[in-house]
Please model this.
Amino acid sequence: MAAFTHHLFICTNERAADDPRGCCAGRGGLEVASAFKRAIHERGLKRIVRANKAGCLDQCAAGATLVVYPGGVWYGRVEVEDVEEIVEQHLIGGRPVERLVLPPEALTGIDPDAPPPPDEVSFSR
Ligand code: FES
Model:
């Protein structure tokens, strides 16, 4: 089984042009995903970093969006020109690119009354 140091999910979802939320495909999501795949390959990281195209991540208004694990770091308004910086600074250097990080309060899907998520997830077999 492959063990990746990082796993990226990059939204490439497309919606109708008149949808008020817009969509990541309409904001360059496919091009961003391709740029990540290319950059990861060029740096010899493809065995340890996985970049997957994803469907809607429910952060549509902030597209193009992606999330990086571990850490669950969300990025928004990412353009092709930002990809090298994310690869260099975050995936290699371990420091998220703060100017593109979506803060928790900007994310949809968070229930303010829910308990905080566990720091670790354990699996039993
Ligand atoms: S269309 Fe990309 S997050 Fe919804």
Summary: DSSP finds two helices and four strands in the chain. The chain has a mean pLDDT of 91.
